[in-house]
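Reopening this ticket.

The earlier resolution said the output was attached, but the attachment link was broken on my side. Pasting everything inline this time so it's all in one place.
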Amino acid sequence: MKGAEIVLQTLKDLGVDTLFGYPGGAVLPFYDALYQQTAIKHVRTTHEQHAVHSADGYARVSGKLGICVVTSGPGATNTITGLATASLDSSPLLVITGQVSRALMGKDAFQEVDITGISVSLTKVSYLVKTIGELEETLKKAAHFALQGRRGPVLVDIPKNVFEESCEYKGIVIKDPDKSTKKKFNYYMLDRVLECLETAKKPMIYAGGGVIHANASKALLKLAETLEIPVANSLM
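Inline output:
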């Protein structure tokens, strides 16, 4: 498959049926491949910022991974505000940006911007795909990181030549980390929290997206009712 087809097949494997985007020179090979298929619906927005905010809204409403595709340079930098919003609000987002061809990188080429460097503080992880052989695995790792633990945005920067080159599609499966590597629940800290709530003069629980994503809303409300504590929901 060509790189553009690998991106689409990877998204299909991840269960993606909708993506948002705004075409541009560096991602035209992707849009050529997108035009040839019907499995994934593409919503063409009015500009790149519109695309990233739309993907963010889709993720919040559906609970799925929000996807947006934009071109290089100013097209990629237009996603920064959306990345910041998704990062602060724990919204799972995969932003795919086009980049100038690998041979032109680092040469101040037309619309070349180091978007991975710019976005590193606003994403859970930012990848630059240097070869087509790492394209499939990188996309699947990025999507996994976006949804794992505290949700948030990830970015994958793909040079134009990677979209155009060909490689075997392997159907790689990204597994969840072994349970033994995950942090154990700290019951001592939970006891301390309960102690603080019970002894506070004016206790209040301020709950947000993390509680909702963890499906812990009912448990939290039950706790608040038991301790007679008001609850403020940051997403209301």
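Reporter confirms the inline version is readable. The CA atoms of residues 80 and 122 lie 8 Å apart. The two ends are 45 Å apart (CA to CA).
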